[in-house]
Amino acid sequence: MAFNYFNNSSVVGKGASNSSRRIDDLDAARQFGSTLFSFSSFTFTSANKTGRTPPTKSELLQHYDNSTYNWLNDTTFFNTDEDNGAAGVQMFTVPVTTSYTITMRGGSGGFPYDASTRVGRAATVQATFDFTKGDVLRIVVGQVARPTTAAGTNSYNSGGGGGSYVFYTLSDNEPLIVAGGGGGGSWSGTSSLRPDAAGDLTGNPGYYVTNEGTLRAGGALVPNQSLGYGGYNNNSVGHKAGGGAGWKGNGLGGNSLCSVNSPYHVQGGWYKGKTLSTASNTSNGSPFMGGSGGAQGAGNAAYEGGFGGGGGGTGRCGSCQAGGGGGYTGGGISTSTDTSPTKESLAGGGNYVNSSGSSTSFVGYGNAGDQGYVTIASA
Fold it and tell me: Following CA atoms 121, 123, 124, 128 in sequence, which dihedral angle do they give, to the nearest 10 degrees?
């Protein structure tokens, strides 16, 4: 179906602010009818980007079919927050007051060179919300952690996948809905278990894979913090990957203490507050960026987490960790029981649905290597 919109930019959204929850001039908009533009559903993607860096608005428009969905060409109805320092945050204006079903998935964890069966899968979740015409929804599409390099060459422990988020503003205490990203794939000869995102809507992170080849329930929280914060990694011991970011805090950063060009600092995933998660690295970035990887150099792209708060992997070390997935609560390991964990995959991220949502569901898991997406469909 053709998606036509009312091309009345001189009236609709006049004086609109990208930082507000709703476009300003709704009274003027109403004179053109009950809807801002014709709409049934649309799927927001990462434009096939992988790793910690999100797509630009230009890349998104090149990827989307903006001739069919021509409302994409009007910045009142579709935009990104990159001019406000939040690159990769897509903005969608609700066209009509009704119920909308959101179905979304986070990004998969990254592949180590020999272990496709050990990559954490991202969660798919669904819920229905009542939105008002002119509401501005902000959308983060979780990206797959960048795949590691060629077989046998410095590619043991990858980053975690990014979570997908829908919310009104970065200052919101709680998002509307979150789908957790998968934990990164780890080199390990002992297990074929996966560090998947959580399989429920409790907000807790998923399971992580221990070096004994078992799953340990619950993932982890940063010590002394509640649900919604970043993943823990017991950084008192070396060879630590970055924890996945949560809605309220970064994943804990780590170190890659391998014998080759070591040590290197590994970042945890970044949360919406844009604070860097490793004190030893002061580079700038955007909210929800994935953490940079270790081994072979700080910030190595081969081991970075996916946009959406995926934690960086440690890289080459055969006794190191893979990064945690981003989500409502970031993926990590348990806070006290693992004193010297190695060859582990940190957990996938947690899922969440705000109490304003109805018909909520954990739909299932994607496949290893699947990108995140967010589909919004009107009732």
Answer: -170
CA atoms within 13 A on the CB side of 172: 18
Please tell me the distance from the alpha carbon of residue 314 to that of residue 253, in angstroms, as a whole number: 11
How far apart, in whole angstroms, are the C-alpha atoms of residue 183 and residue 268?
12
Q: What is the DSSP letter of 286?
A: -
Mean pLDDT computed over every residue of the chain: 79
Q: Which of 101, 145, 148 has the alpha carbon at shortest distance from 121?
A: 145
Global pTM value: 0.86
Contact call for residues 328 and 203 (beta carbons, < 8 A): yes
- Is 8 inside any structural domain? no
User: Would you place residue 1 in the very low, low, confident or very high pLDDT band (cuts 50, 70, 90)?
Assistant: very low
> Where do we find the tokens 């979740």?
125
Look up the domain containing 96 and give its range. Answer: 39-379
Residue 279 in this model has a pLDDT that exceeds 90: no
> Are the beta carbons of 165 and 188 closer than 8 angstroms?
no
Asked whether residue 222 is assigned to any structural domain, the reply reads yes
Domain count, the chain: 1
| Contacts of 361 by beta carbon, 8 Å cutoff, 6+ apart | 125, 126, 127
Residue 169 lies in a domain: yes
Using the CB atoms, write b or e for 226-264: b if 16+ within 10 Å: ebbbbbbbbbeebbbbbbbbbbbbbbbbbbbbbeeebbb
Region label for 295, one of left (φ > 0), alpha (ψ between -120 and 50) or beta (otherwise): left
Residue 14 lies in a domain: no
Q: What residues have CB less than 8 Å from 11, skipping those under 6 apart?
A: 25, 28, 29, 31, 32
Q: What is the mean pLDDT of residues 118-135?
A: 95
Query: Contact at 8 Å (CB) between 158 and 184?
Result: yes
282, amino acid identity: T
